[in-house]
Design a protein that fits this description.
Order of helices and strands: HHHEEEEEEEEEEEH
Strand content: 25-35%
Shape: elongated
Distance between the termini: 15 Å
CATH architecture of one domain: Sandwich
Oligomer: single chain
CATH topology of one domain: Immunoglobulin-like
Number of strands: 11
Length: about 250
């Protein structure tokens, strides 16, 4: 929370600084132009003063650029690559409607806030076109899983890639039922783009901020329990944690 507060304050200060710099620079240019137009030809103004002022303005601009870089460093303190790398090999859940189709399979998780009588599951390609529509079977409140075989509406196999899931749920009275989507999977990679950290989960890049939970894979837990019974000192505690606490 402290980092967020510092980052927000710094962002606001930088934005104000840029605005004032632009205003001051425009004013300076107007004054400079006016002075040059009205200077006495027999006693021209000292150009050294103008040069010094221009240097000062440039220095302020460079300082603002430096502040931008510092802001990125502050914002990435808790979500940098070094921290995210520790998640490789762990199972995570993230709020995302995207899933990768590979080897004829793509899987999503979704949650219905309450019972629904009609649930339409639409799968969209990268261009936003609906390639398959599936009617939900179990429409009770709670978590559900959709496994897609990669076939389009006409039965043709779709190309591997990233697809998104759109859910439309209604109750018996036709009122919309709130829903959300998520994906579960093992983190296989970490990447940083434009100051933001992304995790590769099931072939899809997920922003760090969308993580909901983190846990050890089931196989790792079983191995830890086995080692514990044979006298190993491995820690068998496995508690789901939030990204901020990882």
């Amino acid at each position: 929370m402290a980092v967020d507060s510092v980052s927000s304050t710094s962002n606001a200060a930088s934005a104000t600084g840029r605005t004032r710099l632009a205003e001051n620079f425009d004013t300076f240019l107007n004054l400079l132009t006016t002075q040059l137009k009205n200077q006495d030809p027999l006693s021209p103004m000292d150009s050294t003063q103008f040069t010094q002022q221009l240097v000062q303005m440039t220095g302020v601009e460079q300082q603002l650029l430096t502040n931008d870089l510092l802001e990125k460093l502050v914002s990435n303190t808790g979500t940098g690559v070094s921290t995210a790398v520790s998640l490789i090999g762990k199972e995570v859940r993230s709020t995302s409607d995207a899933a990768a189709l590979k080897d004829g399979k793509a899987e999503w998780g979704y949650t219905l806030d309450r019972d629904a009588s009609d649930v339409k599951l639409e799968i969209l390609d990268a261009k936003g076109r609906v390639v398959q529509t599936i009617a939900g079977k179990d429409n009770k409140a709670g978590e559900h899983t959709l496994t897609w075989d990669g076939k389009g509406a006409g039965g043709a196999e779709m190309a591997d890639g990233t697809y998104t899931l759109k859910i439309t749920a209604k109750d018996s009275e036709g009122t919309a039922v709130t829903s959300s989507t998520h994906i579960d999977g093992v983190v296989t990679g970490v990447e940083q783009q434009d100051g933001s950290t992304y995790l590769t989960v099931n072939g899809v890049q997920i922003p760090w901020e969308q993580l909901v939970s983190i846990r050890q894979p089931a196989a790792t837990q079983e191995t830890a329990k086995t080692d514990s019974t044979t006298g190993s000192t491995n820690n068998t505690d496995d508690k789901t944690s939030s990204p901020a606490a990882a």
